[in-house]
Amino acid sequence: MSDAILSLRGVKTDIAQYHILQGVDLDVPRGQVTMLLGRNGVGKTTTLRTIMGHWRARAGTIRLDGDDIAQAPTPAIARRGVGYVPENMGIFSDLTVEENMTLAAASGPLERERLEWIFGAFPALRTFWRSEAGNLSGGQKQMLSIARAMAEERKLYLIDEPTKGLAPAIVSTMAGALRDLKRRGASILLVEQNFSVARALGDRAAVMDDGRIVWTGEMAELAGDAALQERLMGLSMETA
Description:
Blueprint: E1 4-15, E2 18-29, E3 33-37, H1 44-51, E4 59-64, E5 67-68, H2 74-79, E6 82-85, H3 97-104, H4 112-121, H5 123-127, H6 138-150, E7 156-160, H7 168-183, E8 188-191, H8 195-201, E9 204-209, E10 212-218, H9 219-223, H10 226-233
Parallel strand pairs: 3-8, 3-9, 6-7, 7-8
Antiparallel strand pairs: 1-2, 1-4, 4-5, 9-10
Helix pairs in contact: 3-6
GO molecular function, one term: branched-chain amino acid transmembrane transporter activity
GO biological process, one term: L-amino acid transport
Family: Belongs to the ABC transporter superfamily.
């Protein structure tokens, strides 16, 4: 894909004796939201962690804006403008919301305009600005995790299951914030099990199975074809 901000070719990743990624080929178009979908345990989280350098690829290339980052350390990948929101949130529980956000803005003080935009997306963070992050509810912690990635404009956002286990009202807030980030032209690779969120946010979709990408195409095409969903993932978006 000529305007892909991120391209993976033949990426293989092992964890201990297990071959998790078995030759992943994936393109993430610039300025679009790419949904990484599939059943549990097929390699979606490992794909994000490999891109971010938490797991080292045994083979293959990972190109960010044309440069191979497959063997780069995680801090160097982050400095290249990649924001990562892990499934386990990755916040500092003993620090306040303010301190978490300040640390996330690595290049300097938080810009007031950007902070007000984040407060607009997640009003609870303004309310609990001086509170320790460990005292937040689960949904508020997830908001903070997303907000940390949004503290600066990133070249690419990797987001792992941001709505998992959240109440419907919090899911709606989270989806609205991600939709706003998308409107700002962000490039996002998003793992998401909530298919209504995937359908609403995704421009393109890539479906994984057994450590490989088995289908890529427009999100609208996948969302509109129940038989294709059943064949690829064993379920239908209409009933999910």
